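Hi, can you check this record?
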Amino acid sequence: MIEVNTAGEVWIFAEQHNGKLADTPLELLSKGRELADKLGVKLAAILIGDKVEAISDRLAKYGADKVYLCEHPLLEHYQTTSYTKVICELIEKHKPQIVLYGATSCGRDLAPRIASASKAGLTADCTDLEIGNHEVKKTNTVYENLLLQIRPAFGGNIIATIINYDRWPQMATVREGVMPMPVPDVNRKADLVIEKPNITQADLALEIIKEHLEEKKVNLKDSRIIVAGGAGVGSKENFQLIWDLAHCLGGAPGATRAASDLGFIDEGHQIGQTGTTVRPSLYIAIGISGAIQHIAGMSDSQKIIAINNDPKAPIFGVAHYKIVGDLNEVVPMMIKAIKEKV
């Protein structure tokens, strides 16, 4: 049995834009804290930008033991080449055993570049992470304390566990919303490690004239009530019922990928493996068959109500309350009942 050297820290890439931290690194700090405690090592955040030291305290409150701060005017805006260079130099200097990134557009761009430059493995779009052992059967060798990188595969039909036992750091991107947001500890402090990045204009592939970030139209992750529609809704016109019910309940409208692909609603409302993972107090699934790709993104909801005209629809397998019927009859009745009680 080979015990993997666990001296290296667990790192989280603290993605920020214009001095504002994204939600995903804060979510990752909850899982990172769990992994670091199991390994008996420090949990650190990598904070890169210009004049961003002020937000390092927030990383501490959400669980970081250390914050590696890399500030430089040329790092004000995210660019793949400059951020890759900075993080690769940090990895070479401090030798972490695990580095995690959010599976955001930024993380999905950055992580593969760092993995390639570091000649390390990378698992994309993980939905869970654990520490465990792995046996290489050819050599009858057991490696302990590896990062088990868990993600759906083959269109969501199986769950794969991926490991990297012979090349470090172990790296993964993690889907937004799949890890719970930790409760901040206002009294918590972290060691601030100031790093001086070796960056010149030659390291920048582009000159950014102006950066425009478009806010999401709907915040599904923070919605307590979600009313979601699937392909079974039938048309964009019928989808107005989803909006109407959500409005009555003070909730947010959601959708399956199939409904989004059919043009019933824009993709920002998509829930599931290729959309947002949600955990609302109430989730109402209307005209949703219950494909595993969608269920993976909403099955942790506290209460699930499913409305479908097929009594054998898989969605009923996860629903707490099941209504078999035509949504064009059932939903208007629900809206009427809600309005009469308001």
